[in-house]
Amino acid sequence: MTLDITALRAQFPALAHGTAHFDGPGGTQTPLPVIEAVAAAMSRPLSIRGDGLPGERNAESIVVGARAAMADLLGAEPAGIVFGRSATQLTYDFSRTLAASWGPGDEVVVTRLDHDANIRPWVQAAERVGATVRWADFDPDTGELGVDDIRAVLGARTRLVAVTAASNLIGTRPPVAEIARLVHDAGALLYVDGVHYTAHTAVDVARLGADFFVCSPYKFLGPHHGVLAARPELLETLRPDKLLPSTDIAPERFELGTLPYEFLAGTRAAVDFLAGLAPGSDGSRRERLAAAFACTEEHEDSLRTRVEKGLAALGGITVRSRAARRTPTLLLTVEGRSTVDAYRFLAERDVHAPSGSFYALEASRHLGLGDAGGLRVGLAPYNSAEDVDRLLEGLSDFLRGTV
Question: Are 288 and 281 in contact (CB under 8 A)?
């Protein structure tokens, strides 16, 4: 099955403005069905969840529907889906809850490949209780983070390992399932940052072996909030801080305050939109999502190849994304030039490829790029070959100093 890119792009009002967007890793553009779902939720009666008045029933239906949609997307159970303000907020919340059982002598493993949202919460939680933080390095030449890198820092007192399923900076996809087996054999838990990963491939949390898996719908065409998936029975063992009158039932006990119903409605719509991207696919929503991601992966990989071939022909640009398995995300540096200047040059031509370290500060430093990072080219399903050609033309002009 081939993605109908013309029909797909017509569903995104923002694309009518003419910008070629390569900023998907920072947040995708929004399709009409998601926009309409958010508006519809806010246009109908809404109130605190219940089963009496229309507003109560609408709120309950939205929450239940969103949990079911995210469970289908992630291969999880609805009772294991937790909603939060962001992936960062959820990770901070769970780090505090899990660290309540840690103490001096216990160890936590973080990696230099990760976004800071899957590093700093664990580092700070460990520091507060006197636990030790151990760092897993990745190979800066290849961009690879392997099982042996985790094994080197895993010990008998390791309580948790935090690892990304895909680097938001250079796209590397570590072998999470193999890492999970190693971590579980050591008696530790695995917390997986799936924010970048979920946007580009079909997720199966159980197959990955993640005890906790966090993602952000706005990275895969939905609204701005965070989602965590875990086994319901694991959530039942955790006691987070919460208000006395709020429910003690999981997963609701982890959701602080009233949920953003309109965003949850948009999230369900985003999952349904993704499930419809493979022409002619049928079956359950989970099956249609698998077909859709196979379709979008093929499209994104073909564009990535087009970008890479074009960059190789230009010269003067170093591609820092080199792992064998990676997302369609490229980090570039330009010989003798600032990538901030490249970003601004492209922006004047309505091409959005941002520059920075994108909160993957440890990864940027480990690559020898300091805090500055590089120019990130991140592909999304709605990108086209024409977008890529505009990017390459803009970079060519930048290298030649064309005004």
Answer: yes
pLDDT in tens, the chain (403 residues): 789 999 999 999 999 999 999 999 999 999 999 999 999 999 999 999 999 999 999 999 999 999 999 999 999 999 999 999 999 999 999 999 999 999 999 999 999 999 999 999 999 999 999 999 999 999 999 999 999 999 999 999 999 999 999 999 999 999 999 999 999 999 999 999 999 999 999 999 999 999 999 999 999 999 999 999 999 999 999 999 999 999 999 999 999 999 999 999 999 999 999 999 998 889 999 999 999 999 999 999 999 999 999 999 998 999 999 999 999 999 999 999 999 999 999 999 999 999 999 999 999 999 999 999 999 999 999 999 999 999 999 999 999 987 5
Name the helix (H) or strand (E) containing 113. Answer: none
Angle between helices 87-99 and 120-129 (to 10 degrees): 20
| CB of 104 closer than 8 Å to CB of 305 | no
Q: CA 250 to CA 262: how far, in whole Å?
A: 22
Beta-strand runs (E) in 61-138: 81-84, 107-111, 132-136
Cα gap 203→199, rounded to integer Å? 9
The tokens for 177 are 């399932």
Q: 163 φ, ψ to 5°? A: -145, 150
Asked if 291 and 282 count as a contact pair (C-beta separation under 8 A), the reply is no
Q: Say if residue 251 is preceded by a cis peptide, omega within 30 of 0.
A: yes
Buried b (16+ CB within 10 A) or exposed e, 173-201: bbbbeebbebbeebebbbbbbbbbbbbbb
Name which of 335, 256, 216, 266 is nearest 31 in CA terms.
266
pTM over 0.90: yes
Q: Which residues pair with 23 in a beta bridge?
A: 378
Query: Helices 285-314 and 54-74 sit at what angle, rounded to 10 degrees?
Result: 60
Measured between alpha carbons, how far is 78 from 72 in angstroms, rounded to an integer?
A: 8
CA atoms within 13 A on the CB side of 293: 19
For the chain, count helices (H), then strands (E): 14, 13
What does the alpha-carbon distance between residue 111 and residue 263 come to, in Å, rounded to a whole number? 31
